[in-house]
Amino acid sequence: MDYILGHRASFYKRSLDNGNTWGPKYVLDSTSAFWPGLASSGSMVVVSLNKQIDTSNTEVFFRRSINNGTNWDAIQRITNASGRSEDPAISAQGNNIHISWNDKRSGIMQIYYRRSTDAGVTWGPETQLTNASGSNSCYTTMVSLDGTNADVPYGYSIGGIFHIWFRQSSNNGLTFAPEMQLTSGTVSQVYPYLVRSGSRLHLVYPQIGTGTGTRYIYSSDGGATWDTPVTLSSTGFQPFIAYSGCVLHVIWPDSGKIYYKRNPTGNCGNTSGITGLVNASNTGLSLSASPNIFSQSTKIKFTLSNYGRVSLKIFDIQGREVETLVNGILFAGKYEVIWKSSSSGKLSSGVYFYKLEVNDFSITKRLLLVK
Fold first, then answer.
1. pLDDT given at position 272
2. What is the helix (H) or strand (E) element at residue 154, kind and residue range?
3. CA-CA distance, 108 to 136, in Å (whole number)?
4. Which residues, in sequence order, are bridge partners of residue 201?
5. What value does the mean pLDDT take over residues 6-15?
6. CA-to-CA distance for 285 and 291, rounded, in angstroms?
7. Kind and range of the H or E element at 7?
8. Per mean pLDDT, which of 92-96, 228-232, 350-354 is the most reliable?
9. With CB atoms counted within 10 Å of each terminal CB, which end of the chain scores lower, N or C?
C-alpha cells in the first residue's frame, strides 16, 4: 500500500532470484481503501483488493496473473454490499481461490466468504460465516487452505471484548462446520493468523491491553481441540506464522522493528520449545541407497514428511561437490533418483557421500564406488 497523487494505491513487486534483486513496482489499483492480500499457486499469482467506491462504500475486488506476475488480468468485483466490505484475505491452492473479508451490509460487521474452483474465472455465492447480533460484531478475518480443508479464524467481539473464533470446511469451502471459540478471558485477542499442515493447526494472534503480546495456540487433531495458549512475547502486534518441514517460524512487529522466533520441531508435534537446533534423525526424513557398493549406478531413495525445499548432492571424500541430483521444492512423499557414476565424469573408485537437505535439516550417508 502506497499513495498516488494523495490517494491510497495497491502496488506489486516481484523477485525472480530469491529476493536478491527486485523488478519495478506495478500498480494493481489506484483507488484502494485498505491493504491488499496476496497468494500464489504455481505460476498463478492472485491479489485481493479493497477499493473505495464512494465516501460510504468500500468493496472487495480480485486480480490475477497466470504467468508469475508478468501480466495481469482485469480487476473483478467480488462483493456487492453497498457498504463496508473491507480487509480481504486471500488464499490459493491449485485452481482453488478462497477470499474472506469483514462486511457490514447488515448494519453489523460480519465475516463473509467466497470461493472460486476454476482459478478465478467464476465465483460461488457470497456467504455469511458469522451470526453476530445486537452490539456484538466480528472482525479481523483470514483464510487458510490445505488440500480440501479451508480454515477461517476471526475476531468476535461480545460485550466489547474480542476473542478468536473459528470456522472450518473439510470439503473445499462447500459447507462449514459450526463456529468454535478458541480463546477467552477479560482481555481482547484479535487479528488471528493460521497455517495448517495435515491435522496440525498453528495459530498466532496479538493480545490487546493487559498482558499485551504475541500468543500461539496449537491443535493436533484438525481443530477439534486446542492446547493452552503459549506466550511468545509480552509486546508487539499482528504476528504471522509459517512452517518449513518440522520448523515453525513466527514474526511480529514491535516499536518499529521486526522480531522472529522459531520452534525447530513444532510442526512435528512438539510445541514447547521455540529456539535452538534439532537433530535431523528426529525429523521423519529417511534416506537410503541400493546397491551401496556399486560400479555403474545406484538408486537413492528418500522420504519427505512435509513439503519443503530439497537438495540431494554427491560429495567426494575431500568434501568437494561432485553432482547435484535434486534442487527444488517437493511435496511430502517417497522419491527415487538414479545416480550414474559416468554422468559425473571420470570418477575413481572410493568412498563418496550423498547428502539430503530439507529446509533446516540434513542427512548424510556413505557410498562405495568400485570399478
1. 47
2. strand 149-158
3. 8
4. 196, 219
5. 89
6. 20
7. strand 7-12
8. 92-96
9. C
pLDDT interval class at 306 (50, 70, 90): confident
Q: What is the DSSP string of 286-342?
A: EEEEESSEESSEEEEEEEESS-EEEEEEEEETTS-EEEEEEEEEE-SEEEEEEEEGG
The residue with cell 473459528 is 166
Query: Most confidently modeled of 33-37, 71-75, 226-230?
Result: 71-75
Topology at the third CATH level for domain 2-268: Neuraminidase (2.120.10)
pTM of the model: 0.70
Mean pLDDT across 76-81: 93
- Sequence-separated (6 or more) residues with CB below 8 Å from residue 135: 159, 160
Mean of pLDDT values over 159-166: 94
Alpha-carbon distance of 58 to 91, in angstroms, equals 21
Closest CA to 285 of 357, 365, 196, 202: 357
* Interatomic CA distance for residues 303 and 25, integer angstroms: 40
How far is Cα 311 from Cα 276, in angstroms, rounded to an integer? 22
C-alpha R_g of the chain: 24
Q: What is 241-262 written as a DSSP string?
A: EEEETTEEEEEEEETTEEEEEE
Query: Which amino acid type is present at position 20?
Result: N
Domain ranges of the chain: 2-268, 281-369
CA angle, 25 then 79 then 151, to 5°: 85
Of residues 72 and 235, more confidence is placed in 72
> Residues 253, 245: contact at Cβ < 8 Å?
no
- Choose between 272 and 167: higher pLDDT: 167
Q: What is the CATH number of domain 281-369?
A: 2.60.40.1930
Quick check: do 2-268 and 281-369 share a fold? Answer: no
Which residues does 4 contact at the CB level (< 8 Å), separation at least 6? 27, 30
Mean predicted confidence (pLDDT) in 24-32:
91
Torsion of CA 13, 18, 19, 25, to 10 degrees: -10
